[in-house]
Amino acid sequence: MEDQSKQLPKYIQVKKRLLSYIQEEQLQPGDLIPSENKLVKLFHVSRNTVRQAIDELVNLNVLATRQGKGTYFKGFKNSGKVRSGLIGVINHTVLDGIYPAIIHGIEDVLHSREYTMVLSNSAHNTDREVASLKRMIEISIDGLIIEPTFSALMQPSDTTSLLLQSLDVPVIFTHFSAPFFSNSSIEVDEFQSGYLSAQYLIQKGHKDIAIIIKTDTLSLCHRLEGFLKALSDHNMQERPEFIKTFVEKDEKEIPGAHFSEELLALGKGRPTAIFYYNDEVALQGFRYLKSRNISIPDEMSILGFDNIDDIKGLTPGLTTFEHPKYSLGRWAAEMLFEELDSEAPSSSVM
């Protein structure tokens, strides 16, 4: 198997090799490391690469320099555990919806702490997720932030679960928690999100409300539960033909349009409002309804979720709920560093 660490920037590779050298040579605090000239020859890299690697370890408080005397080993924090300065981030998408803002929030915190992000997109594929986790383990990450793929279907015996349980570094889950994991998590209160979404449309006078939502993600299952509870609390009938659920493997190319078409086909028995589980799917539905000359919101009210940039400028505007995406990313990273310092798992619901 090819060494996955070779895909990292050269200075990070050298940093890892320097850490290995310190351990193999059993250096003690105060011992000098080899000179830059010797490290250039030892690792077959440029002087600039060596300096970048040393600077990284100085920032991590592993090394220190003395003017005119060289660079010496200061010691490892947390009972001698080596810090690589790498934080893994795995999401099932990185370019769509809320995820660029979440990643931005994580990156801002990592940058302020002088850590490097190793980002992986599992692309809704469990094999890719497993491969990403194995790579993270191989390059010795100091911590991991992950939103698991198909989280509603996860079991303790799954390969992903077993790999996560084997990690001896802090792991922060986003949009997910499960009783078979003791790891920390940060989540939006999805039950409340679904409840408030339905309640908003009910308060607008709607009695026939549909929902289009994925159900292979645990957080979205909770959102659906909240939506249905709001209908029940307002003595509204739950109509199966108005509840359009799907999972990733069955997802249509344009699910917002596909399921909106099915709802319109109900004729006089169609809903007067549709709650789309996110703004991307709502935008698909919006465009389909406009193509059918359905007046929004006069003939059909639509509600999205997340408040992403792509919906700005629509006419008429798309009503949506705000997702604290950037803040969620920052808080996940801050929780991870709290655990790196204290090793005490925690959780937070937003």
UniProtKB/TrEMBL annotation:
The UniProt GO MF terms for this protein read: DNA-binding transcription factor activity; transcription cis-regulatory region binding
Output this protein's name.
Transcriptional repressor of arabinoside utilization operon, GntR family
Q: What InterPro entries does the record point to?
A: AraR_ligand_bind_dom (IPR033532), LacI/GalR-like_sensor (IPR046335), Peripla_BP_I (IPR028082), Tscrpt_reg_HTH_GntR (IPR000524), WH-like_DNA-bd_sf (IPR036388), WH_DNA-bd_sf (IPR036390)
Is DNA damage one of the keywords UniProt gives this record?
A: no
The alphabetical list of record keywords is:
DNA-binding, Transcription, Transcription regulation
Alphabetized PROSITE patterns for the sequence: HTH_GNTR (PS50949)
Query: In this protein, which residues make up the domain named HTH gntR-type?
Result: 8-76
Q: Could you tell me the superkingdom of the organism this chain comes from?
A: Bacteria
Q: Which SUPFAM superfamilies match?
A: Periplasmic binding protein-like I, Winged helix' DNA-binding domain
The question of whether Transcription regulation is a record keyword is answered with yes
Give the CDD domains listed for this entry.
PBP1_AraR (cd01541), WHTH_GntR (cd07377)
